[in-house]
Structure to design on (223 residues):
């Protein structure tokens, strides 16, 4: 089955850029997603990218997709303390379900 | 904006009690999902439903059942709560068409004592 992998933890200083990485296994995925979960809350959809795109930018967020390597990344420019959260990447699988990575905890130090 | 609501943010129940977790979405989504989230285990799918009165088992359905009598409402039932069901429960919904993104409720943190 599909397996979406992420590193567990990332620590950056406020104002720096953060890059969160994800590898996935299903090369036929049409969309790939990034979610954010703040402490004690549900998951919030941040952005998604269609598989025929290499890059998508939305304000401080940049998503890069390397289909050859099945690698997805989320770059957050000018990281703020409010960006501290767990970030999940996800890909669709059969039945319109999503397979989630284990999540990357981003800690932003002032 | 899509809104998914869950009946409780925090719930404390005793072992052996029957527990109902309710989820309501207001966007006429066909698909609804129940996950549990535990440290180190990520999100695990318990059950999902792609239509009224339809349900499918996810990865960890044991000890749970679900009900979907109306399109907007998806209930998770713990027939006899056990301490190993202490967890964060997340409900989500999505349309049946691409890009299939799921919208999540705020979660219910259930403690079974």
């Amino acid at each position: 089955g599909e397996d979406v992998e992420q590193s567990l933890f990332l620590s950056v200083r406020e104002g720096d850029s953060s890059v969160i990485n994800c590898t996935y296994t299903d090369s036929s995925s049409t969309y790939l997603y990034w979610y954010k979960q703040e402490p004690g809350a549900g998951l919030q959809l941040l952005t998604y990218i269609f598989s025929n795109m290499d890059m998508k930018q939305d304000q401080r967020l940049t998503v890069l997709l390397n289909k050859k390597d099945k690698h997805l990344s989320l770059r957050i420019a000018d990281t703020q303390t409010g960006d501290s959260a767990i970030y999940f990447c996800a890909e669709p699988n059969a039945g319109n379900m999503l397979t989630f990575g284990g999540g990357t905890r981003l800690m932003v130090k002032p | 904006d899509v809104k998914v609501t869950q009946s409780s943010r925090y719930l404390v129940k005793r072992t052996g009690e029957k527990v109902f977790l309710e989820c309501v979405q207001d966007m006429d989504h066909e698909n609804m999902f129940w996950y549990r989230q535990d440290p180190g285990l990520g999100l695990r799918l318990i059950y999902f439903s792609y239509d009224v009165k339809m349900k499918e088992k996810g990865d960890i359905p044991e000890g749970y059942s679900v009900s979907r009598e109306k399109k907007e409402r998806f209930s998770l039932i713990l027939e006899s709560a056990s301490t190993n069901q202490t967890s964060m429960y997340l409900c989500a919904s999505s349309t049946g068409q691409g890009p299939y993104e799921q919208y999540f409720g705020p979660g219910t943190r259930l403690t079974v004592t």
